[in-house]
Design goal:
With 325 residues, the chain is of the alpha+beta class. Helix content is 28%, strand content 30%.
């Protein structure tokens, strides 16, 4: 496959939208979408004209696979439901993305979460049952790879946030983030892991979890149930009790307890497309409460009732929260 400048031109289609199109293609190649995912794809496709252009381009590129003579292309086409085909298709997409005119290495790397074993779109929350009986819940815009073998159960959090409910097994369960390794030390552990910018946040709800910053075994920290911590490659912050907002997303809620409005809007912005800006004059206003994530527009309307602010909507995708006149 060759994703050349004709198929995904950076001046015509943004890298973010191109990545979304690739993600949908990979998911469809895995098998027919169920009704819920089909509806989600249709909403994405109809979201704007750029999505439709990206989808038309990626479809044309995909059709060219059958005409390629490379062994990699034939591997991708020849085994529709095998792990080998999935990895071959990933390689084709990643190698093809490297030839897109003007795409940087950073943008090529950004494709990887969308080519993960499991991912979720912006605003989507998704449950996945794993082969060992464990369950992974993906928060908005999240991606995770899964590798189980005879020695271990390994998950890699590529992006976003997951809530993991680990089943008992004779193999250890490890979760790798950009900052190190998270190890489930007891059976039936339940924990939430979020990839932040340069840091990982872990909250333990059940069981005991060990962290190894920088993935250096023997230098870690053990957390018990109802404890949380944030860590970097080198160190961890002070261990605290789990706060009410951690993991509330799995129940479809955004929970705030005297949270700065700017921080609240940053959290809400994770579940929406477009820009959600906060004027500096109201950034430090405090907000508390539980808000349903299924309707971010309703949450914005509620802000005008709870706080002295005005929500200015230029479009659905460009919103400013400012002081009320």
């Amino acid at each position: 496959m060759n994703l050349n400048s004709e198929s995904l031109n950076k001046s015509d289609i943004s890298p973010a939208v191109a990545q979304q199109a690739v993600g949908w293609l990979v998911e469809m190649q895995e098998g027919a979408l169920d009704a819920r995912r089909q509806h989600a794809w249709q909403l994405w496709l109809n979201g704007n004209a750029e999505h439709q252009r990206a989808w038309a381009h990626i479809q044309r590129v995909n059709q060219r696979l059958s005409g390629l003579s490379s062994p990699l292309a034939h591997a991708a086409m020849g085994a529709p439901k095998s792990a080998g085909r999935r990895h071959a298709l990933k390689l084709l997409l990643l190698l093809g993305a490297g030839s897109v005119a003007g795409w940087s290495l950073r943008e090529q790397i950004a494709l990887q979460p969308l080519l993960a074993d499991y991912n979720s779109g912006v605003g989507e929350r998704r449950k996945v049952a794993l082969s060992d009986g464990s369950q992974v819940q993906l928060n908005t815009a999240s991606a995770v790879d899964v590798r189980f073998d005879t020695q271990q159960r390994l998950l890699t959090l590529l992006q976003g946030e997951i809530l993991m409910t680990a089943s008992a097994a004779d193999r250890p369960l490890n979760l790798l983030t950009a900052q190190g390794m998270v190890r489930a030390s007891t059976a039936s552990s339940r924990f939430n892991v979020r990839q932040l910018d340069g840091r990982t946040q872990l909250a333990v709800f059940a069981g005991a979890i060990e962290i190894d910053p920088g993935n250096r075994p023997g230098t870690g920290l053990m957390l018990q149930a109802r404890q949380q911590v944030t860590f970097s490659n080198e160190e961890w912050d002070t261990v605290r009790s789990v706060d009410a907002s951690n993991g509330a997303w799995a129940d479809g809620m955004l929970v705030a307890s005297r949270m700065k409005l700017s921080d609240f809007l940053n959290e809400l912005g994770r579940y929406r497309h477009g820009r959600l800006n906060c004027d500096a004059k109201v950034a430090n206003l405090l907000i508390s409460g539980s808000y349903p994530l299924a309707d971010s527009e309703r949450i914005l309307d509620m802000l005008e009732v709870a706080l002295p602010v005005h929500v200015q909507r230029f479009t659905r995708y460009w919103v400013n929260v400012q002081a009320r006149a």
